[in-house]
């Protein structure tokens, strides 16, 4: 069965006719030509397809597009402002937080969403009960645990996120 949906992707409005069984990832990549989110595991386990959906991070391989008619999506490609990189993107470059780069768009989107969550005081599994959110390396690693890097660039990814948190005045390391 087909239907028509509207999406705003990286600031541009799209109207697209889709099969109701299509994932947001497939619509982004195959219908709209946005190859920023990557198809990794196709099971929501690697995070390569992570984008910001209405400001919150989501794995698009698990999201049916039909359920998100009218949504606002931001991919890693849409974070920059012209030639000015988003602070998380700049931190990834500065800290060499990528090797092959396949996971990088999902890592970057997840980091942007995670920093927003932390700035709102949302606890993670390793936040001590009753404590303020402090972005220690362990806290960052826990919050980013849904994004895998096949190359193992985790040390640099954590350093990049820590730097972006400081630059954004997000909760700091203790």
From TrEMBL:
Zinc as UniProt keyword = no
- Identify the metabolic or biological route this protein is part of: Alkaloid degradation; nicotine degradation
Please name the InterPro entries in this protein's record.
Answer: 2Fe-2S-bd, 2Fe-2S-bd_dom_sf, 2Fe-2S_ferredoxin-like_sf, 2Fe-2S_ferredoxin-type, 2Fe2S_fd_BS, Aldehyde_Oxdr_Iron-Sulfur, Beta-grasp_dom_sf
A Pfam match is: Fer2_2
The cross-references to PROSITE patterns, in alphabetical order and at most eight, read:
2FE2S_FER_1, 2FE2S_FER_2
| Record's keyword terms, sorted | 2Fe-2S, Iron, Iron-sulfur, Metal-binding, Oxidoreductase
For whether the record's keyword set contains Acetylation, the answer is: no
Q: Where is the 2Fe-2S ferredoxin-type domain?
A: 3-79
Q: Which GO terms describe its molecular function?
A: 2 iron, 2 sulfur cluster binding; metal ion binding; oxidoreductase activity, acting on the aldehyde or oxo group of donors
**Transmembrane feature ranges:** none
Taxonomically, the superkingdom here is Bacteria
Gene3D superfamilies cross-referenced by the UniProt entry: 3.10.20.30, [2Fe-2S]-binding domain
Provide the protein name. Oxidoreductase
What is the organism of origin for this protein? Actinocatenispora comari
Q: Which lineage do the record's taxonomy fields give for this organism?
A: Bacteria, Bacillati, Actinomycetota, Actinomycetes, Micromonosporales
């Amino acid at each position: 069965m087909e239907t028509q949906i509207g999406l705003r992707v990286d600031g541009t409005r799209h109207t697209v006719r889709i099969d109701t069984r299509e994932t947001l990832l497939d619509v982004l990549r195959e219908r709209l030509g946005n190859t920023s989110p990557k198809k990794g595991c196709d099971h929501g386990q690697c995070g390569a397809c992570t984008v910001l959906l209405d400001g919150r991070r989501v794995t698009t391989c698990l999201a049916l597009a039909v359920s998100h008619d009218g949504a606002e999506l931001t991919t890693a490609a849409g974070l920059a402002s012209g030639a000015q990189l988003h602070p998380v993107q700049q931190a990834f470059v500065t800290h060499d937080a990528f090797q092959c780069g396949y996971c990088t768009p999902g890592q970057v989107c997840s980091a942007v969403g995670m920093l927003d969550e932390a700035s709102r005081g949302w606890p993670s599994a390793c936040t001590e009960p009753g404590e303020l959110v402090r972005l220690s390396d362990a806290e960052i690693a826990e919050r980013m645990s849904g994004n895998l890097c096949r190359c193992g660039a985790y040390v640099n990814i954590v350093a990049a996120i820590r730097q972006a948190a400081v630059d954004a005045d997000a909760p700091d390391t203790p």
